[in-house]
Design goal:
Blueprint lengths: L1 H24 L20 E4 L2 E6 L6 E2 L13 E3 L5 E4 L13 E3 L4 E5 L12 E3 L4 E4 L13 E3 L4 E4 L19 E3 L4 E5 L13 E3 L4 E3 L14 E3 L6 E2 L13 E3 L4 E4 L12 E3 L4 E2 L2 E2 L12 E3 L5 E3 L13 E3 L4 E7 L10 E3 L4 E6 L8 E3 L44 E2 L5 E2 L2 E7 L10 H17 L4 E11 L5 E9 L7 H12 L12 E5 L18 H39 L21 E2 L2 H7 L8 E4 L3 E7 L5 E7 L7 H11 L10 E7 L2 E7 L6 H6 L8 H20 L5 E2 L8 E3 L5 E3 L6 E2 L8 E2 L4 E2 L5 H6 L1 E2 L1 H17 L4 E2 L2 E2 H8 L26 H11 L10 H14 L13 H7 L24 E2 L2
Parallel strand pairs: 2-4, 3-5, 4-6, 5-7, 6-8, 7-9, 8-10, 9-11, 10-12, 11-13, 12-14, 13-15, 14-16, 16-18, 17-19, 18-20, 19-21, 20-23, 22-24, 23-25, 24-26, 25-27, 26-28, 27-29, 36-40, 47-51
Antiparallel strand pairs: 1-2, 30-31, 32-34, 32-35, 33-34, 37-38, 38-39, 39-41, 40-41, 42-45, 43-44, 46-48, 49-50
Helix pairs in contact: 8-10, 8-13, 10-12, 12-13
Length: 944
């Protein structure tokens, strides 16, 4: 017993002495770092397990001083995050290597200097190593190569020098990091050549960032072996030699920057890099060549920058019709002839900059394109009278003045250095600079991208249950390293400022890369400003009062107050009786028409359930009855007194789905009835609760069946029956409902399967009736789900029934491939277009078809199904068939395949019935809302 007590005492002594060492090195530790026990007294930023400190997270705490070597005594420490404390200086102590259980070492945006100690290679469990934006110098420790579990390595924005370390048999090197995904080394002073040994086919890298260093020599051909790469940046170095010919093997690369080097030899051939969004090869010394014919084949391209690269000849018209193209910068080359951007250039095209070339004619688009063309320094601008033409004048330098707009409110007039939030509340926001290191777009004037970024960040904060009311982005600009920078402000949801815990939690989400924006924005870094407005725990003020005065006043007024209380009680009771009677006769007595939800819902036969009844049906919303959850809230299984099973969707407070969607759903589903539409049993709006009661569909969503989650196997015949059922439901909405209804959110999670695998269309929260005068199209805010969203609707905000047809076409491709519409930056529509070959079996789609569809068996009608899907996803709405025509063609395909399109689906097999009893996520949940992928405006655009 004495030995045990002694050991316990020693552990406590060790813990306290190490923390005391940290406190002594920091003149201003957190205010509550003063109790006798860091674990028991819940010191700010300290987490413990069994009275042992396992985590220290103190981001943005305004700490100053140095990091004491006593940190090495915390042998159980797993997380150390001191990010955004610019006052932390000095070197990183060698004792850091004693923390052998450390998984995350995050020191972003501090003031540390000196060499990174070699002992860091002893941290065998390290997953995240983020030392970016400090003043570290010297060489990259070769011992980092010993960190076999490392996922994230970020040493960006320091003063590191020397060569890139690789192994040599006796020493470690970065080439040994086979499981690492991120190499971030930009904005340092690294020199020497890029070792060919650095890369291999065994590596899993997705980001290789060596921009803005002093690297020399050539790019090794081994780079082309790392086929997992998505972002490659070697720009702003001193590289020479020819670009390796095998880099076009990198078919997943989206951002590729080799600009501002001394590269020479033949112009690179990157044909086949079909995922490429952003290509910049500017300011190199390639051999003079005609404009490469392979460039217009890169149908994902948004940005093409080939300034001073030696290209000559004319530009093909097809270049400007690439759907996603935004910017073309080909300044200071030898291009000649006529510039013809065609009759229908990309709707996203904003800039064509061909300054200092030999263009002698400009054939402008007749389609009313608003693209800015710059031809100064070309013969076409040297003709008489040309100086007055817009494309022959010096453009004014443009800076984007974007700032996140107010959320349907009037900005508040704030004082005391407070700021009005997007929700028009005055407070002290947490601010800093958000740097996007490799965005895949170039249009800084397009607010859509920044709305997406703000929305996805807000979703991340909410999913981590942080006290955030809203976020604001402003002042987008490019810095010297070609990073896209924005000012970020995060506003508190409670009071006018954050407390230390709130700031620390937000800082950790950003420093730890817990928040991950979509591939649209690439890797990011956040550097926080100093926060000085910490909210303090309110204290109760104590005033000395005269007890005699209190007693006298109480005695004097007691009789009067008693009489008033009796009268008030009687009046209150009568008022409550009247209110209860009114509420029983009007379920929307508390509906607020001044909110975004608008006027009171108009019902046609939908049943109103009292809240108390729904509590009984779900056993008071017990966890045992929970069958799903998502951004809207939770879904519970309920049993009506008749024994009927129902699914009850209960909105949580602050839900992503507000009153507008709630109103939409009950209004539409109470008046439309079809066997291929999910049935609304009723609703409840009471005591601030919003609940929707649906029929219970036991076999979940189509997405769950395609992914294998539900245990249901969908062969070719069953997929056709699912397609025809969904098409019937959608055709009914378009052609038989009065007024017609556009669903606006057709996707595999909104197609539900009953116990016979009949398909039913669900979720009408975004649906839009086409009222009188709106037939043909209605102008409306863009809403939908990224990947399924009609690009024409997205660009024009003109909503038509053909927008649903486009989404249904994507759904058909999902039925064929079982792939999400967008995976790893690859869009299924584009993937099918690229590989499709009508002269080959299965149209050459075997490589992307879902094997569970029954490959190797007779798939009659598959080619016709593919052709129909591709007609549905035509870029232009008029080129797409109507849903009625789609339905007829699917029915014809089924007949061709020997199936009866009018027959109900066969009863599920025993295995299917057994699967339906499992604990899969229920179809009415919306769990996938949090998997944000980006790409379209987030007005309510859900991710995949």
């Amino acid at each position: 017993m004495r030995l045990e007590i002694s050991n316990f005492a020693m552990r406590r002594l060790s813990k306290f002495s190490s923390i005391e060492g940290l406190m002594n090195a920091w003149p201003n530790p957190p205010p509550n770092w003063g109790g006798p026990d860091p674990c028991g007294d819940h010191w700010e930023g300290i987490d413990c397990t069994n009275s042992r400190i396992t985590s220290i997270t103190l981001s943005s705490m305004g700490l100053t001083g140095s990091l004491s070597g006593d940190i090495g005594q915390l042998s159980e420490l797993q997380i150390l995050d001191l990010s955004y404390n610019k006052g932390l200086t000095g070197s990183l102590p060698a004792q850091i290597g004693n923390l052998v259980k450390l998984t995350r070492l995050i020191l972003v945006g501090c003031g540390f200097s000196g060499q990174i100690p070699n002992s860091i290679g002893s941290l065998h469990n390290l997953v995240y190593l983020s030392l970016n934006s400090n003043r570290f110098n010297g060489r990259i420790p070769a011992t980092i190569g010993n960190l076999s579990r490392l996922y994230w390595l970020d040493l960006t924005d320091n003063q590191l020098t020397g060569p890139i370390p690789v192994s040599d048999g006796s020493n470690y090197g970065l080439d040994m990091l086979l499981h690492t995904k991120h190499f971030h080394f930009g904005q340092n002073h690294l020199n020497g050549t890029i070792p060919s040994q650095l890369f291999s086919s065994e590596m899993n890298l997705i980001h290789v960032l060596f921009e803005h260093n002093q690297l020399t020599g050539s790019i090794p051909s081994t780079l082309g072996l790392v086929q997992s790469l998505e972002v490659v940046r070697f720009d702003r170095n001193i590289l020479t030699g020819a670009v390796p010919g095998n880099l076009n093997n990198l078919t997943s690369v989206q951002v590729f920057l080799l600009s501002n080097n001394g590269l020479n030899g033949p112009f690179p051939n990157l044909a086949g890099m079909n995922a490429l969004n952003y290509l910049d090869l500017s300011n190199n010394s390639f051999d003079v060549t005609v404009f490469p014919s392979w460039i217009p084949t890169l149908q994902s391209l948004t940005t093409l920058i080939l300034e001073h690269t030696g290209v000559q000849g004319g530009l093909p018209v097809s270049l400007f019709s690439i759907f996603s193209l935004q910017s073309v910068v080909l300044k200071n080359n030898q291009l000649n002839g006529t510039l013809d951007i065609g009759t229908s250039p990309s709707n996203q095209l904003q800039l064509i900059d061909l300054q200092i070339n030999f263009i002698d004619n400009f054939k402008q688009s007749t389609g009313g394109s608003s693209v800015e063309v710059i031809l100064i320094g070309n013969p076409v601008c040297q003709e008489t009278g040309a100086a007055g033409l817009s494309y022959c004048t010096i453009p004014q330098s443009k800076t984007s003045s974007y700032s996140t707009p107010p959320n349907n409110c009037v900005p508040a007039v704030c004082s005391l250095n407070q700021t009005s939030s997007p929700n028009c509340k005055c407070s002290y926001p947490y601010t800093g600079t958000l740097g996007l290191r490799a965005p895949s777009f170039s249009g800084l004037g397009n607010s859509t991208y920044f709305e997406i970024l703000a929305s996805s960040m807000m979703i991340s904060f909410q999913s981590n249950q942080l006290p955030v009311d809203s976020v604001s982005l402003s002042d987008p600009r490019k810095d010297s390293a070609d990073y896209l920078e924005l000012n970020l402000a995060v506003f508190p949801s409670e009071g006018v400022s954050f407390n230390r815990t709130g700031i620390n939690s937000i800082g950790f989400v950003l420093s730890n890369q817990t928040y991950q924006p979509s591939q649209l924005f690439g890797p990011f870094q956040f550097i926080a400003d100093n926060y000085t407005h910490f909210a303090e725990v309110p204290t109760t003020s104590k005033k000395s009062l005269n007890i005699g005065v209190i007693i006298g006043a109480a005695a004097g007024g007691f009789v009067l107050l008693s009489l008033l209380a009796l009268v008030g009680a009687y009046a209150f009771r009568q008022k409550k009786r009247a209110e209860k009677a009114t509420e029983q006769s009007n379920p929307f007595v508390n509906w607020d028409p001044n909110k975004s939800s608008g006027s009171i819902p108009q019902l046609k036969g939908a049943r109103w359930f009292p809240l108390e009844e729904l509590k009984k049906y779900t056993n008071n919303f017990s966890e045992a009855n929970g069958i799903g959850s998502g951004g809207y809230g939770k879904v519970y299984r309920g049993t009506l007194p008749t024994g009927t099973l129902v699914a009850i969707k209960r909105a949580q407070q602050g839900s992503m789905q507000g009153g507008t969607e709630f109103k939409n759903e009950i209004e539409l589903l109470s008046r439309v009835h079809h066997k291929n539409l999910v049935s609304l049993v009723g609703f409840c709006f009471e005591q601030g609760e919003q609940l929707l009661v649906y029929e219970f569909l036991p076999n979940g969503t189509l997405k769950e069946s395609l992914s294998g989650k539900s245990g249901i196997r969908l062969d070719w015949a069953r997929r056709l029956k699912v397609a025809v059922g969904a098409a019937r439901g959608l055709a009914y909405l378009h052609e038989l409902a009065n007024p017609p209804i556009i669903h606006r959110d057709i996707k595999s999670t909104n197609i539900l399967l009953d116990d016979h695998l009949n398909a039913k269309v669900a979720d009408f929260g975004l649906s839009k009736p086409m009222r009188d005068g709106e037939r043909g199209h209605v102008t409306t805010q863009v809403k939908g789900t990224m990947g399924y969203l009609d690009p024409e609707y997205y660009m024009t905000q003109q909503l038509t029934e053909k927008s649903d047809v486009y989404s249904f076409g994507v759904l058909m491709l999902e039925l064929l491939t079982a792939r999400r519409p967008i995976e790893r930056g690859r869009y299924i529509v584009r993937e099918v277009r690229v590989v499709m070959d009508k002269d080959k079996d299965f149209y050459n789609l075997q490589g992307i078809l879902d094997p569970a569809i029954g490959l190797g068996t007779s798939l009659k009608g598959l080619e016709r199904f593919v052709e129909l899907a591709m007609r549905c996803v035509e870029d232009s709405g008029p080129d797409r068939p109507s849903m009625g025509d789609v339905l007829k063609e699917i029915e014809n395909i089924m007949v061709f395949a020997g199936l009866n399109p009018k027959a109900e689906s066969a009863t599920t097999s025993a295995s299917y019935e057994e699967a339906s009893k499992g604990n899969f996520r229920h179809p009415y949940s919306n769990e996938d809302f949090l998997e944000y992928s980006g790409g379209f405006p987030p007005s309510r655009i859900e991710p995949l």
